[in-house]
Amino acid sequence: MTTEQAIKINASQPHQIEQILPLPLLLSTPVSLCNGFYFNYHRQLNYQVPEILSSQHIIGISPQSFYASFKVNQNWQRQYYGESDIGIFPAYQASPAAQFEQDNQFIVLSFEPDFLISAVDESINIDNIEIIQQVKAYDPLVKQIGLAIKRELETSISDSRLYVESAANMLAVHLLKHYSTRKVNLKKYSHGLQNYKLKRIRDYINDNLDKDLSLAQMSQIVQMSPHYFATLFKQSMGIAPHQYVTKCRVEKAKYLLSYKEFSIIQISNLVGFKSQSHFAKVFRKYVGVTPRKFRIS
Fold this sequence. Notes:
By secondary structure, the chain is an alpha+beta fold. The chain has 2 domains: 7-178, Jelly Rolls (Sandwich), CATH 2.60.120.10; 195-296, Arc Repressor Mutant, subunit A, CATH 1.10.10.60. 40% of the residues lie in helices and 20% in strands. Helix 2 crosses helix 4 (161-178). It starts with 6 loop residues before the first strand and ends with a helix.
C-alpha cells in the first residue's frame, strides 16, 4: 500500500482512531488537556490494523508481552514483544499493517511535531528533525512513563493536566535524544533557577492554586521551554513542579480546614481539585488522614 492509500488518522479527532478499532477506546485524554499530546488506551482481541498515516508521532505500548505480525514489502513478519518493548511511528510516514494474535491492551501516545520542539527549545528548526521509525525497540523508561500516565488518568482525568503534561514533556525530550536522525544537544544547567525567577514562579503558583495550572503556563512566566524550566525548578526545590504544586495545594487545604465556614467540597475547589474524591485521596497520601478526619482532630 502506498502512502496515498494508507488510512489517515489524526489523534486530535478521536473518531478517526476508533474507525480502525473493532472495540472502542477505554480511556483517552480530552483534546484540550495537553496542547499537542494525546493519550489513548484500548483493548482488542485478535485484530488487524491497516497501514496508517498519522498526523502525529506515535508511541505504542502494551502492558503485557505478545506476538504480532507486520506487513513489510508485501510479506508478513512475526515479532515477539517483551514487556519493555515499544513501537515508534513518525508523523506523516506510513506505518505497516499489523496483526495481533491474542487479547491485548494497548497504550497509544501521540505527539504533534510542534510539541516535541516546543518542549525543548522553540529555536530548533522542526524541518531538521526527523523521528526514526522503530517497529520494535526495547525501552523500559518509555513504558514506565506510559503506564504512569495511565494510572494518573484512571484516578482523575479532570485533575491530571499538570502531571500528564510533565510526563509528556519527558517523553518528548527522550524521543528527540534517542530516536531522532539529528543529534539534539540539550543545554545543561546545574545551579537551578535564578532567585528572582524562583520567587516569581512560586508566587504565581501560590496565587493560582485554584486554577488548572499547566507546565506550559509556568514555563512562560520565566520565559523558558518546559524542559529547561522543569529541570531548573527541580534543582532549586528538590522536587518537580507538579509535585510542588500538589504540596502547596495540600498545605493550603490544611489551613482552610481550620475554618468551619468552608465545606470540604469548597476547599477542594479552592485548592484546585475538580474531583473531591481525588482531593481526599491526595490529601490522605500527604497527610496520613482524610480531610474530614484532619478537620475533627
